[in-house]
Amino acid sequence: MTTETTPTFALEQRPDPASDEQVAELLANPAFGAKFTDHMVVVDWSKEGGWADPRVTAYGPFQLEPAASVFHYGQEIFEGMKAYRHADGSIWTFRPEQNADRFARSARRLALPELPKGLFLESLRALVELDQRWVPDQSLGEVSLYLRPFMIATEQALGVRPANRALYSVIASPAGAYFPGGLKPVNIWLSEDFVRAAPGGTGTAKCGGNYAASLAAQAEGIDNGCDQVAFLDAIEQKWVEELGGMNLFFAYRDGTIVTPELSGTILEGVTRGSLIELAREKGHEVIERKYSIDEWRADAASGDLVEVFACGTAAVIVPVGTLKWRGGEVSMTGGDIAGDLRNALLDIQYGRVEDTHGWMHQLV
Ligand SMILES: *Cc1c(COP(=O)(O)O)cnc(C)c1O
């Protein structure tokens, strides 16, 4: 298959799909990432043959060799996106070309094959079209179908080298609000013993290994009564980078917003980029620069820093109430900016306002 031809996915419908009642029950009460739709996408890759056999097939276990390299050396990447049902019943996703580009960048960093953009986009469309009854209606609230494209190295080989076989897949899970508390502020633990990413490492790639490496810090945060962990730069332990899976914004009393600049160790969030644009359109000055942990503490204590919020596809925007560290904490007073930006973004995603940016991409 070449990048020029429009890929066609074979449809292998499962004989035993969930009943309409089961789907309705799940959509009325979706947990995050716990239940999956009837089908999944699978595309195989080999060094000799390239991408082959694109199909939408029954959701179910993979058969993999125990020696498949993903199990040993973590050669894996993923993406996270959502499908939204608009009021007229049509189904859309948000800026998928950005995810396709990032997936290709992640693939290069992890020495996996690049998936052609057309194949990425068509895989989402084919799966959502077949499983469209799993995309919840927005009358149910902040609901969507979460899409999880991912790629793993499947070659049976314990030699340490890029695998000659890989598998691309997409699974989908009905999603309600990521944090059931909605806009309830979360507490953030400052990680001082662990870093997420170092220069030259994999911080800008969306790979499972980054998440595995963040879990011990996350557990420490939970032990300290926090929901999420903020990581600092690996060299000076001074510059605020991001949370384990969300980018950070700092909003000042005068309306200025600061977000850590893309330093080579921060994951470039699609939500981050979109919020920078939306905030500027609303008249905020948005500055991308290095932002120190001392600034965060001092400006929150003085009251100049009124809001801190984290953002990502799954949780959209979450306000940070308190930053805690060993021996101290500081709280933000809170304000309207996070909520305003959140509503502006959700209105576009759910088709409640005109999409003046051309960000929405119709799937069904
Ligand atoms: C996925 C991710 C984000 C958020 O990216 P979005 O494209 O906005 O969903 C932020 N940080 C990390 C480390 C991530 O993996």
TrEMBL record:
Domain of life assignment: Bacteria
PROSITE patterns in UniProt: AA_TRANSFER_CLASS_4
Pathway in which this enzyme or protein is active: Amino-acid biosynthesis; L-valine biosynthesis; L-valine from pyruvate: step 4/4; Amino-acid biosynthesis; L-isoleucine biosynthesis; L-isoleucine from 2-oxobutanoate: step 4/4; Amino-acid biosynthesis; L-leucine biosynthesis; L-leucine from 3-methyl-2-oxobutanoate: step 4/4
EC number from the UniProt entry: 2.6.1.42
Gene Ontology molecular function: any one: L-leucine-2-oxoglutarate transaminase activity
Necessary cofactors: pyridoxal 5'-phosphate
Pfam families: Aminotran_4
Example GO biological process: L-leucine biosynthetic process
Signal sequence interval, chain numbering: none
Repressor in keyword set: no
Record keywords: Amino-acid biosynthesis, Aminotransferase, Branched-chain amino acid biosynthesis, Pyridoxal phosphate, Transferase
N6-(pyridoxal phosphate)lysine, modified sites: 206
Catalytic activity field: L-leucine + 2-oxoglutarate = 4-methyl-2-oxopentanoate + L-glutamate; L-isoleucine + 2-oxoglutarate = (S)-3-methyl-2-oxopentanoate + L-glutamate; L-valine + 2-oxoglutarate = 3-methyl-2-oxobutanoate + L-glutamate
Top EC class for this record: transferase
NCBIfam families reported in the protein's UniProt record: ilvE_II, PRK13357.1
Family the entry assigns: Belongs to the class-IV pyridoxal-phosphate-dependent aminotransferase family.
PANTHER family assigned: BRANCHED-CHAIN-AMINO-ACID AMINOTRANSFERASE, SUBGROUP IIII AMINOTRANSFERASE
Protein name: Branched-chain-amino-acid aminotransferase
